[in-house]
Specification:
The protein is mainly α. The chain has helices spanning 3-18, 21-37, 45-87, 103-125. The protein folds into two domains: 3-95; 101-136. It contains four helices and no strands.
């Protein structure tokens, strides 16, 4: 088992746990306990440093875990969309794996779709149907 696989499993587990209501309650309780402990520590700089350090560390680590989870979810969505394109009769296969295209290619396709949308709105305004599969 490689480091990437271990990291992926940890990231999924932490993301699953972090999204639960109980985790929010634990975090809120920690903050409330920290606030309540203020008078015992005379609201000292060290007392403030404890919460600042803890939240900074948690935030720093969560950025990477959230990004990992988002990357995996985005990749899964792209694969599902690719499969829908692949099995849909009349769909343009050039749309498969589109996320790997260069920015200028995406811009050109976006312009074509914007033109199709304008034509469809115009057709709808004339009372025509706008359900077709025009060539790109």
């Amino acid at each position: 088992m490689g480091i990437a696989s271990v990291y992926s499993k940890i990231a999924r587990f932490v993301a699953h746990i972090a999204g639960r209501p109980a985790t929010f309650v634990v975090a809120l309780t920690s903050i409330l306990l920290w606030i309540a402990s203020g008078p015992f520590f005379n609201f000292s700089d060290t007392w403030q440093l404890v919460i600042n350090t803890a939240t900074t560390i948690v935030t720093f680590l969560m950025v990477f875990l959230i990004q990992s989870t988002q990357n995996r979810d985005t990749e899964a969505i792209h694969l599902k969309l690719d499969e829908l394109i692949r099995v849909t009769q009349g769909a343009h296969n050039r749309m498969l794996d589109l996320e790997e295209s260069e920015e200028h290619d995406l811009d050109a396709l976006r312009k074509q779709y914007e033109q199709l949308a304008q034509q469809a709105r115009a057709a709808t305004n004339r009372g025509e149907e706008d359900t077709d599969a025009p060539d790109l």
